[in-house]
Amino acid sequence: MTSITDPPQGSFRLSMLINDTRYRSYTFQFIALVVLIGFMAYLGMNLVSNLAAAGLNISFDFLGDPAGYDINQRPIEYDSQSSHLRASVVGIINTLIIAVLACITATIFGVVAGVLRLSNNWVVSKLMAIYVEIFRNVPVLIWIIIIFSIMTVSMPSPRAFRGDDPSSSMLFDTFAFTNRGVYTPKPIFDSGGWIVVAVFILSIIGIFAYRRYATKKLYATGQLLPTFWPSVAMFFVPAILVYYILGRPITLEYPELSGFNFQGGIQLRGSLIALWFALAIYTGAFIAENVRAGIQAISKGQTEAAASLGLRPGRIMNLVILPQALRVIIPPLISQYLNITKNSSLAIAVGYMDVTATLGGITLNQTGRAIEAVLLLMLFYLTISLLISAVMNVYNNSVKLKER
Amino acid sequence: MKKTVLFGALTVAGLAAGMASAATLDDVKARGSLNCGVTTGLVGFASPDANGVWDGFDVGVCRAVAAAIFGDPTAVEFVPTTGKTRFTALASGEIDMLARNTTWTFSRDIDLKFEFTGVNYYDGQGFLVPKDLGVSSAKDLDGATVCIQTGTTTELNLADFFRSNNISYDPVPIETNAEGQQQYLAGACDVYTTDASGLASTRAAFENPGDHVLLPEIISKEPLGPLVRHGDNDWGDVVRWTLNALITAEELGVTSANVADLAAAPTDNPEVNRLLGTEGELGAMLGLEADWAKNAIAAGGNYGELFEKNIGENTPIGLARGLNAQWTEGGLIYSPPFR
Ligand SMILES: N[C@@H](CCC(=O)N[C@@H](CS)C(=O)NCC(=O)O)C(=O)O
Questions:
Q1: Does the beta carbon of B56 lie inside 6 Å of ligand 1?
Q2: Is the CB of B193 under 6 A from ligand 1?
Q3: Domain limits at A37?
Q4: Which of A33, A116, A404, B46 has fewest C-beta within 10 Å?
Q5: What is the pLDDT, as a whole number, of residue B7?
Q6: Both A279 and A375 in a single domain?
Q7: Which atom from ligand 1 is nearest to the alpha carbon of B45?
């Protein structure tokens, strides 16, 4: 009766590592791993012995020495006597500034262009197609340089604003557009200024709370509360009231021509604008394609079903299509954000002092610590990329299909 | 297939390991040409002409070294480098020598592990401003926007100068001279600062050079010279003594016009004979042919000829010899004796 016998157990022979398909793949993977480790070790030892032969060593002490050079865009206190480490931190902050600005702007461009490309209006959809094809197919470095060159050549220099009959003048006496950048007024906060800001933020929170309350009430009792005008009122009234009650604690500092340059106000450097705009518009074209793909991935039946329920086209997009499309859009969007962050290292092409320009450029050059500087740079970009991925993955999990 | 790739990679890595210690002169001879790092383009010092042939004062040094080794001044590969890439190029062995308006400083010599083989131009950092800016001294530049090349001594000197004079400025970092020129002419910076010789050469390329002036202040010492990697003294000697040969030739009156005659037979002047190889064994001691110096001088002329032809007073750049006159004429150009 016992015609079925168990397969022989435990009798493992060495030859099975080659002959038995169950083990063979492990054998090869193990060999590959050993070879890889050996190769890496060989390269590493090569590096160490070459450095020793050239009389160099790996040391990060240089980070504590005075940098000796100046940086134009300083989000934190920095001068030429500060350390290389501080110069690197200034660079890191500048990288983050450009990355955040460009990611936000690229998303806006991308979503608008992606949605409009599907528009039924022939002109609009073709215009968007042209935008996508032109900006996607020319390298971003070229865009950065083109935008920067156009700004430097076509805008007036501050000199043109001088004299009794200047050839250029400020817009509304408030904004100055020069080839060194754009100058805008800067808010100055007196002691009560922050209270006004706090009240403003509170009223925005209030608006959301009120709207949620109104929705709840609608579902619970069927009574429709007005939302638009109350929201507008809450947006403006409390903040303005507090502003005057406290005696106008926020004033604007206007840019003013003095000496060689405009002083006061906020200066958006030409290099920042060129880099920001180029990254945003270039990556925006890719995001537009992601958005289009995401929307097209939602079957037409969804639109038709929603329409037959009587939803208007705008609502169909916002309530039915986009929430589903986001699941398709988010994953490639993560990699676009990573691209922006990494492409921001092209900053030095227009003299924007990001971390590649400070640590990986001037510091590396003045100290000759190439390996150390490049290792630190790799570490920085790796960390920041992994952080972005992590954050975006959390968001992705929150919008993805909840399986029940 | 996979194996060959792996062994290929190993050989490349092995070669890289060998490079740091190998004798550069042997490598250059085996390769049949010299890899010389120069600027990306600075008229008079190093720039390609309409046919792509490099010419200039620094290029002349490269050509003289190639002629000393091969007897052929065209056996040079010119590698354009920016202020930022030049040291990596030299340290990695991509170039054999660097002749690129490079200032001899302590840290480059000691910390970056290079060896400067002499000085071919004594310079200092100056400021170029448009005349209509109405500035007559660098001390009036408080708040000005200044264009500087990154990775240079220029940016360090500038920081020191403004700091010690307690005035502020807004630096605009640029990578090449061409970019600096564009920014400066567009008015994106008020001032362009670099070595005074570089400013003279840049200004010569302007449409209206007369609209721009050099400020009187020279804020630093910039001894510019060719350099090689530290640790290969034999190779350093070849470059050093080729430059010295050009300088000595001027001092002794040996020119590209008469060098062939003077080298044909021993003359009355024993130092000329030793220099040109009609007496003694100097060439062999360097590992070169006996007529090495003759070839180097014939390549582009002696030091004075190179100067006059490329950057001298009769060129658009119009630099006077000044500090760069022979020591016998009150300058600093001085070669140790050939004996
Ligand atoms: N002598 C300084 C500055 C050298 C430098 O960058 N000079 C400029 C102007 S004189 C140059 O050669 N530019 C040519 C280029 O951009 O390739 C140094 O060694 O750091």
A1: no
A2: no
A3: 18-53
A4: A404
A5: 43
A6: yes
A7: 12
